[in-house]
Amino acid sequence: MASSNGEAEQQWIENIKSGGTVPCLxxxxxxxxxxxxxxxxxxxxxxxxxxxxxxxxxxxxxxxxLGFDWIKGPAKICEILKDSNHRVRKAIDEEVSRGNRPFVxxxxxxxxxxxxxxxxxxxxxxxxxxGSLMDQFLKGDDAFRxxxxxxxxxxxxxxxxxxTAVGEQAICILGRALSCKxxxxxxxxxxxxxxxxxxxANAIVHLAFGYITTLTVDLAFLIESQTESxxxxxxxxxxxxxxxxxxxxxxxxxxxxxHQESTQSRPVGFWQGFSQLxxxxxxxxxxxxxxxxxxxxxxxxxANEDAK
Length: 308
Prior knowledge:
Structural class: alpha+beta
């Protein structure tokens, strides 16, 4: 991006961060809000993980936090960044018109509950290095993306019943557990994650939703490193949401008709990753057969990752 006006560059980011219905607050105190948790609160594969299975703290994020939308609609919310009237898309277009080149990553967790969506936005202000995992992800096909996009979920605070169902930390490859749709433009990529595509995830969301006003959860997104040259893993970005009030969700109605899904919606939720994570219940070290049958085959390592 052009660097002649650093303050202006940061101002558009701050406008998006503060523009949602849920406020951006300090991570240590963010009731009914969202924040950026410390990267070191997540454990990722270290430089020699393939030989010693040692994980290290996540460290700095590759992307900057950009915003959070807690919204609901008359139907399942999808392809939100293809809507030229959406606040984040409008901000992207305005930056491009100024000669800047931000690239936005959006992770849309579609909840299987009343068409709620929790959407997390991150941004890169610099060119993505050629050949990097991020570059491979953007240029790769859906099969590659489904095999690499990883979610780490930490339950920071919550009732015993939710901790028992989810586990205090859960790790999964999203595309192996849930239906993911990738929507890419010249300045963004959006991942629509259908949590309702898993029977187990659907059940967990309905359980957790009853306690949502008491929960504090950290979610981190990363591209899994599977070869030695790709290690150590790096976090793309992470969000903490705390004690969300369903009543604070904004109402989203697509004003643009450029794309509107007509298929029957099965809402999804930010707990989608958690469904698959059920195989991580408590200290269980093997995936449950039922979960494997519901969500597809899980690698044994994924079931054990949170225990390392």
